[in-house]
Amino acid sequence: MWRLDKNIYLSTSLRLLKKLEALLFFFTGFKIRDIKLMDNIIIGSLVSFVISFYAIPVIIQVADMKKLYDIPDERKVHKTPIPSLGGLGIFIGFILGLLFSMNIADISGEFQYYMAAFLVVFFFGIKDDILVLLPMKKFLGQVIVAGILMFKGGLLIDNMHGFLGITVLNPPISYLLTGITIIVVMNAYNLIDGVDGLAGTVGIISTSAFALFFYLNGDLFYSQLGFTFCAAIAAFLIYNYSPARIFMGDTGSMMIGAINAILVIHFIATAANSKIVPISAPPAIGFGILLLPLLDTLRVFAIRIMNGRSPFWPDRNHLHHLLLDKGLSHKAITLTLASFSVLFIAISYFLQPIGITGTIFTQIGLFFIGIGILNFDKFRKRTTTKLAVVASETNSQQFNDEIDNGFARRFRNIVTFVNKRNANAEEIEVNEEDFNLNN
Prior knowledge:
Blueprint: H1 2-28, H2 38-66, E1 69-70, E2 82-83, H3 86-101, H4 111-131, H5 135-152, E3 159-163, E4 166-168, H6 171-191, H7 198-216, H8 220-240, H9 249-270, H10 282-289, H11 291-306, H12 319-325, H13 330-350, H14 356-438
C-alpha cells in the first residue's frame, strides 16, 4: 500500500514539477534544474541572517559594558549615547555565510582579492568606530581598498557604452574613473547613514537589485555575494529601525559601499550581454540603482568645496537633514527615501529607449528638481528674512533721518529765537540811550 501511495505521490510530484518548469520557462526562460542554483544562495543567506541576528545583541551588551558609544552632538540627530558597532555583526554574518555556502567550483578568481578588500574595510572601519580616524586616514584606507579591487581583483570600468559618445576608455582613464567610483560609492553609503534604518534599507534595495539581476542571468557568484550580504543587513535592521538600539557605524556603511561598488562595476561590464532582462544602457541603470546616495554625496561635496571646506567636513546638508527640517520622523524619512530609490530604479529602466546620455541627465534633473522642492521653503524663509532685515534697516534709517531733521528744525528755531531776542534787547538799549540824551 505504501509503495502504491509512494508511486502516486512521485508521479503527482513529477507532473507538478513539469508544470512548474513550463511556467518558469514561459516567464523567465529558466528550466527547473536552474532552481538548484538557489540552494547555495538560500543556505548562505540563512547562515548570514542567523549569525548576524544572534551576534548583534551580544555586541550591544559588550558595547554597553565597555561604554563604546556614539556620543550625540549638535550635528547628530540622536539624543542619547548608542553603540555604533553594528557593522561588526554585519561583517561576521556576511563573511561566514559566504564561506559556508560557497562551492569551490563557483568561486571566481577575484574572490580572494574581494575578501582582502573586505578585511581592509573592516579593520579601518572598526578602528574609526572605536577610536575615530582622521578623514585623511579614512580616505587612505578607501584608496587601498580601491587599489586591491582594481589591480588585483581586475575590477574596471573600461567602457562607457556611448555615454557622451564615449565607448572604450584608455587604461589610465579607466583606472582613474574606477578608483573614483569605488571611493565615492563607499562614502555615499557612509554619509547617508544619518537616520535610523536609512543606510541599511537603501543598501538592501540596491544590493538586492543587482543580486536579482545576476541571478536571472546565471551569474551565481555575484548573485550569492549580494543576497548573502542583504541577509546580514536585514538581521541588523531589526535592531536599527527607530528607535535604534545600535548603529552600523563606518564598518557597516562602508561595507555596503564596497559591496555595491563591486556589483555596479560588474553590472556595467556584463549587463549588455543579458538575455533575460534586456539592458541597453548599463551605466544609466547602474547609476539609477545608486542614484540617491550617490548624487546626494556629490551634491554635499560640491557645497562643502564651494564654501571653502574639506569635502569630508561634516554638516547638515544631506537629504535626511532636509527631511528632518520638514518635521518628518526617522521612519517616515526611511520609507520616503526607500520608495524613491525603487522609483528611480524603475524610471531608469523605462527611460532606456532615450539612450544612456539622455537617461542619466534626466535622472540628474529629476533629482535636483526634488532638492529644489525640498529647499523651497528654506529659500522662501531666507528671502523673507533678508527682506525683513532690509526693511528694518530702511525704517531705521528713515527714523534717524526724521530725528536728524527734527533736531535741525528745533535748532534753527532756537537760533532764530535767540537772534530775535538779541535784536530786541539791542533795540531796547538804543531807545534807553535816546531817552537819556533827550532828558
